[in-house]
Every structure is written in C-alpha cells, then in structure tokens.
Design a protein that fits this description.
Rossmann fold, 2 domains, 6-stranded mixed β-sheet, 12% strand, P-loop_NTPase
Length: 274
C-alpha cells in the first residue's frame, strides 16, 4: 500500500505521517514556513502488508527560490510512489481555508488531472479534539463551519473525510483507524492504484534502470569468469612450456654425455691401433 500525504505548509502533514508510523520519523514543528522541503519515504506494516508513507513539501510555496526545488521534489515524490499511490491524504487545517489552500489543490489538479485524482483522495482534518469539542461530528463541522471551497473538495472526494488528533501520543488504534479508511478506499477501487502516466513512466524508468544494472552485473560476472579462465590457461601453457624446456634440457645433457662417451671410445680405439 502506497500513501502520499499532501497539503499546504503548516497543515500537519509530517505529524500525520508520524501518527501512521507510530514514531517520529518525519520532522514536525509548529511553523508558518515549510519544514518539509524534501520528499521523505518511510515504511510501516499493517495486516502483514508493507505500507509506504511519503511526506511531500508544501505545494503552495510560490517563492522563486523554492519553486524549482518543489518541481524537483515532485519528481522525486513520483519516483518514490511508482507505479502509483493507492491513496492521497489531503491534509487541511480546520481553522482556515485560504488562497494558499486553493492554490495547493489547483496546482495538484493541474499536475494530475482532477477527474481521476479525487477518486484516490481522502480529506483529513487535523485538530480532531477542537472539532469534536464544538460539533457532534465532522460532518456537522463541514456543514456548519466550512466555506464552499472546503465543501467542494469534500464533495469531489465523494465525502471521504476523517479527523486526526496529532498532538496526542501515538497509538495502535489511531494508526488502525487511518489505515482502515485507506483500506476501504483501495477495496472500492479494486486494489487499483492511481494510474497516472507520470507514475507509469517512473515505473518503466525504474525497471529499465534495474535491468541495465542487472545486465551490467551479469557482464561483470562474465568478465570475471573469463579473466579466471584466461589465468588458468596461461598457467597451463607456462607449465607446459616449462616441462618442455626441462625435457629439452634433459635431452641435451644426455646428448652431451653420449657424445663424451663416444669420444672416449673413439680415443681408446685409436690407441689400440697404434
């Protein structure tokens, strides 16, 4: 299961990611500036299944020096979630929905296309305690205390919405509540993941990269085998050459001995004649 957590700066994305993991793996601080400037990927387990959680930087940051970094991190996020996420968690602060939030969702819609994107989305409101202290349910809160833009986002997500309290200690129950909602969404989508071409392309690039890496490894292994065989052949040739030289030397010694012996015999014969 692959989950992407998205939203504006300061909405509580990293805190939500930590709640799912039940440990502080993502940096989470009260800040009006983005704490998460790079995509981060962590893995947990749920019902004997791996769950990939990717925290993303705030998509609303329009400062010129940050825009190229955000573009780069979007690409990184896509690679981390290939071949596609099973769910996007849209994190919203219940106390505001301003131009920043509108820009954030507009940017994402332009990136992925609104029609398919929202089929894989769940709206998550942080500060659950504040909401439920003032309203009987999150549905009542949305109906009575949110602007038309928030209602529109919830409607696009087919009313899939939940609340999370990130300030309380981690618990298995909180983790299960969140992941069961995501599980329900994946079952509704028949275990399908978001089929956008960006993620499919990332998957193809990864497979090609792995194939190239595997091929390179096989070539290196083959080259090592060839090198070892070459060394063995050279050793055998050297031993053969040394044996031949040794045999040649032995023949030379025997030849010299025979010559000397023959010479002595000849000399004796001559003396006998005289």
């Amino acid at each position: 299961m692959r989950i992407a957590i998205i939203g504006v700066t300061g909405a509580g994305k990293s805190a939500l990611a930590n709640t799912i993991l039940m440990e502080k793996k993502f940096l989470s601080l009260p800040s009006c500036e983005s704490v998460t400037e790079k995509c981060q990927k962590e893995i947990t387990r749920f019902e004997n299944r791996s769950v990939v959680v990717v925290d993303t930087p705030g998509f609303n940051d329009t400062r010129m020096e940050k825009r190229h970094l955000i573009k780069k991190e979007v690409s990184t996020c896509i690679l981390m979630l290939e071949p596609g996420p099973h769910a996007f968690l849209i994190v919203l602060n219940p106390n505001r929905f301003l131009e920043e939030e509108r820009k954030c969702l507009t940017n994402i819609e332009h990136l992925f296309g609104a029609k398919e994107f929202y089929k894989f989305c769940i709206v998550v409101f942080t500060r659950e305690k504040e909401i439920l202290d003032a309203f009987r349910s999150v549905e009542e809160f949305i109906s009575r205390n949110t602007c038309s833009d928030v209602k529109d986002v919830v409607r696009k997500c087919s009313n899939r919405v939940m609340t999370v309290e990130n300030l309380t200690p981690f618990s298995e129950l909180k983790k299960e509540l969140i992941l069961n909602r995501i599980k329900d969404l994946t079952l509704k989508n028949r275990e399908a993941y978001f089929p956008h071409i960006y993620f499919r392309t990332a998957n193809i690039l990864k497979r090609n990269s792995e194939y190239a890496k595997a091929s390179k490894q096989k070539i290196e292994e083959l080259q090592n085998i060839i090198d070892e065989l070459t060394k063995k052949i050279e050793k055998m040739e050297m031993e053969k050459y040394q044996k031949q030289n040794q045999k040649g030397s032995e023949i030379s010694v025997l030849y010299v001995r025979e010559r000397k012996k023959t010479g002595v015999q000849k000399e004796s014969s001559v003396c006998g004649i005289l």
